[in-house]
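Below is a filled-in request sheet from our internal design queue. Each sheet records the structural input a requester submitted and the sequence that came back. We keep these sheets so that new team members can see what a complete request looks like end to end.

REQUESTER: design group, bay 2
PRIORITY: normal
MODE: inverse folding
CHAIN LENGTH: 370
BACKBONE (tokenized):
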């Protein structure tokens, strides 16, 4: 798989309505994760590590934090004179992107037309995973497929729209259902596929001419019998963020060394924006157990089973358990938190108590004072 063969297209905003708490002031792609990353870091790093050197990121609204995070793309080696990273905002688009993914793809028709790559790899930014697309592309080429979708086998997420595939032993997709709710022992899509660039443009043009805007229903399902659609099963660790509870559990999963080994292998690193900060500092009498603590943190209290982002300060006497505390939060003296997700720049005063549960963690919005 050569970089000049494939162009990556990322949808930064898809499914953000499922985690409205976290996307009120940001897009799905810029949701913080794992102490120092954003969700877009996984989608971008997977492409770059697989040899793709041209990526377009489709946005809709609230993408200021995404622009700040991506910058010129230098972190991912995408700051280039040719190819590189392209942010594709809605301004100047003659077609609305609110109708569905088809209209979003139609709005970047000129970008696709002017690209020289033969294939397009389409991906949402709502899944935390570490996928080597070279294996997927090799499978796609061997099968001479029109479209190759990436799926997982197991219990599908409990959402209003799941794409479930019937796949034969050779990987050929025999049937495709769009279902509501969760199913067990099924092959469910994770919003990633490979298709020829010209084929994609033709399918999008045809769908737009018929006022059809749903990519899964109006392009994939409608044309399933007329195209060679294959499915590639991804068996590694993957966490699709379909609810606030899923987001919390995806962070807590990082406590397992096996999960971290699959998400962050040395040969396939996840890149992110660098923030030069001091190492984490642990005061006398502090206690940290089974937690992820980012650089810049100052810990004087007790922390257990937590994910602490950069610059978090835990003052003396504070006790944190099963929490996700985002960047530059301050936990006051004597404060006790359990099953709490605090967004950026939250300040807890002295002797505050707040507790949720594993099935319903408490969320504190960005910039709040408790």
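RETURNED SEQUENCE:
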């Amino acid at each position: 798989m050569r970089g000049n063969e494939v162009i990556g297209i990322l949808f930064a905003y898809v499914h953000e309505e499922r985690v409205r708490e976290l996307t009120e002031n940001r897009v799905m792609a810029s949701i913080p994760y794992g102490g120092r990353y954003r969700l877009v870091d996984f989608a971008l790093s997977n492409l770059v590590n697989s040899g793709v050197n041209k990526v377009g990121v489709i946005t809709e609204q609230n993408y200021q934090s995404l622009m700040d995070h991506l910058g010129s793309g230098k972190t991912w080696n995408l700051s280039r004179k040719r190819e590189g990273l392209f942010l594709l905002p809605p301004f100047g688009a003659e077609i609305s992107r609110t109708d569905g993914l088809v209209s979003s793809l139609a709005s970047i028709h000129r970008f696709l037309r002017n690209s020289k790559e033969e294939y397009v790899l389409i991906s949402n930014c709502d899944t935390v995973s570490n996928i080597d697309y070279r294996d997927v592309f090799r499978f796609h080429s061997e099968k001479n497929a029109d479209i190759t979708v990436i799926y997982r086998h197991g219990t599908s997420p409990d959402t209003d729209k799941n794409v479930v595939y019937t796949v034969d032993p050779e990987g050929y997709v025999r049937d495709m259902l769009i279902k509501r709710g969760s199913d067990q022992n099924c092959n469910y899509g994770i919003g990633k596929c490979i298709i020829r660039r010209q084929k994609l443009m033709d399918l999008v043009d045809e769908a737009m001419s018929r006022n059809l805007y749903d990519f899964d229903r109006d392009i994939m399902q409608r044309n399933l019998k007329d195209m060679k659609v294959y499915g590639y099963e991804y068996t590694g660790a993957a966490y699709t963020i379909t609810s606030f509870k899923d987001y919390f559990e995806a962070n807590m999963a990082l406590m397992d060394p096996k999960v971290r080994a699959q998400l962050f292998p040395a040969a396939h690193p996840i890149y992110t924006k660098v923030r030069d900060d001091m190492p984490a500092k642990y005061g006398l009498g502090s206690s940290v157990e089974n937690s992820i603590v980012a650089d810049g943190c100052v810990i004087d209290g007790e922390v257990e089973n937590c994910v602490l982002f950069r610059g978090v300060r835990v003052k003396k006497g504070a006790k944190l358990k099963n929490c996700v505390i985002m960047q530059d939060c301050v936990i006051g003296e004597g404060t006790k938190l359990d099953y709490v997700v605090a967004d950026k720049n939250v300040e807890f005063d002295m002797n505050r108590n707040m507790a949720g549960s594993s099935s319903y963690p408490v969320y504190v919005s960005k910039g709040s004072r408790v």
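SHEET NOTES:
- The chain has two domains: 6-263, 281-364.
- The chain is about 20% helix and 30% strand.
FILED BY: M.R.
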